[in-house]
Amino acid sequence: MTTFKQGRYSGYLKHIAYIIDLSIINVLAVLYFFKMVEPIKFVFIVSICWVVLSIYSKFYEVYRYSREITIASLLIKQLALFTLLMFAFSGFNHELNIQPLTIIKYSLLVFLLIGLFKFTLYYLLQKYRTVFGGNYRTTAIIGKNKQTMALESFFNKNPEYGYMHKKTFNIKDKDNFSLEACFNFIKRESIDEIYCSISELSNTQMYRVIDFADNNLKILKFLPDNKDIYSKKLKYEYYDYIPILSLRNIPLEDSVNLFLKRTFDILFSSLVIIFLLSWLTPLIAILIKIESKGPIFFKQSRNGFNYKEFDCYKFRSMMPNKDAHLYQATRGDQRITKIGKFIRKTSIDELPQFFNVLFGDMSVVGPRPHMVSHTNMYAKRIDKFMVRHFVKPGITGLAQISGFRGEVETDKDIIGRVKYDIFYIESWSLLLDIKIIFKTFLNAIKGEEKAY
């Protein structure tokens, strides 16, 4: 059984930074500099504008390999934009008679404190990685040349960036190198990130490395040269002065996108729970109990983000049976009750999963989670199946509205589902989520052929 590294992302730091920065901005303004403003109006307008400016300037795009000069340039850019914003606010509210010198003093003090916090956090994390060995990622490099040796040197000489380098594989050593041995080492040592020299790998080898990384939830990055690789959107980064390419760019790894999606999930699931499940649950419970003995809710272990198992909830639609956790419902399944047939056809049985969304195990939209036994089976049989676990699973998804919901009758069904799930992961937007939810609602009203 392949093991998967969990909790690789420290995106919570960005959320904390947002909260602290907004607190500095608003507390200084309302309690000291601009006591005459309407607090609620000011906080709302300035906070929204700050978030928009931050997205535009990429103010929070600071990574473990970012340098001090990068942080300083982000601060200066954000300071200029924020000062212009405050002058615009003063112009629109001229009756407040805010003096230009007051705005300049306020902006400078705000950025002095924000800069102090930003650099303190940056150096504390570096010290934490250096002294305690925490917050690190293990790395392996495939290919040995001048560029990869420079990257290995960067990893070894800069422990403050939080990389623990394990091994560099020499592809030119034909007697001792094989990709299979390389893959076994990566799995055995629980490597988090794989770095490849494009010039040293053949196209066939590159495809094998990509497939291995996708199927084992490993982050894969390339050291670029003049060799043609793939017609994909590539993310270009610098580790010190070393250029690095990331083959798969996942929008939901960005903390702003993650915050927007999580906020939407909480609001949407709360509305469903309050205005729908609050009165529908007792009715469904009575109907389930009248027809058969057993619990109202059905709980099943499924794999979610980073392959982590969680309890997925549904309204019980079958007679209690020992095979419920092993076999999917099939067409004409005798285990399904009469009320169960109705709630499955209308997707009402899935509604308790909005509690999973509220608890943070699921999202409203995302790849549908599978039973643990099925996940283990498909991970071995279906190429790139594990890519689905780079994001939280959803109640509905792009694959489900595209004809790939319900029972998996052949490998074609699961291959199609994976294809749509990967497209969703790489192309996520809030508008796409809303479109999928709307289409799911229409399909529930019309009824679907595979809803049984």
Automatic annotation (TrEMBL):
<feature type="domain" description="Bacterial sugar transferase">
    <location>
        <begin position="261"/>
        <end position="445"/>
    </location>
</feature>
<feature type="transmembrane region" description="Helical">
    <location>
        <begin position="40"/>
        <end position="57"/>
    </location>
</feature>
<keyword id="KW-0472">Membrane</keyword>
<keyword id="KW-0812">Transmembrane</keyword>
<dbReference type="GO" id="GO:0016780">
    <property type="term" value="F:phosphotransferase activity, for other substituted phosphate groups"/>
</dbReference>
<feature type="transmembrane region" description="Helical">
    <location>
        <begin position="69"/>
        <end position="91"/>
    </location>
</feature>
<keyword id="KW-1133">Transmembrane helix</keyword>
<feature type="transmembrane region" description="Helical">
    <location>
        <begin position="12"/>
        <end position="34"/>
    </location>
</feature>
<keyword id="KW-0808">Transferase</keyword>
<dbReference type="InterPro" id="IPR003362">
    <property type="entry name" value="Bact_transf"/>
</dbReference>
<dbReference type="Pfam" id="PF02397">
    <property type="entry name" value="Bac_transf"/>
</dbReference>
<dbReference type="GO" id="GO:0016020">
    <property type="term" value="C:membrane"/>
</dbReference>
<feature type="transmembrane region" description="Helical">
    <location>
        <begin position="103"/>
        <end position="125"/>
    </location>
</feature>
<protein>
    <submittedName>
        <fullName>Putative colanic acid biosynthesis UDP-glucose lipid carrier transferase</fullName>
    </submittedName>
</protein>
<dbReference type="InterPro" id="IPR017475">
    <property type="entry name" value="EPS_sugar_tfrase"/>
</dbReference>
<comment type="similarity">
    <text>Belongs to the bacterial sugar transferase family.</text>
</comment>
<feature type="transmembrane region" description="Helical">
    <location>
        <begin position="266"/>
        <end position="288"/>
    </location>
</feature>
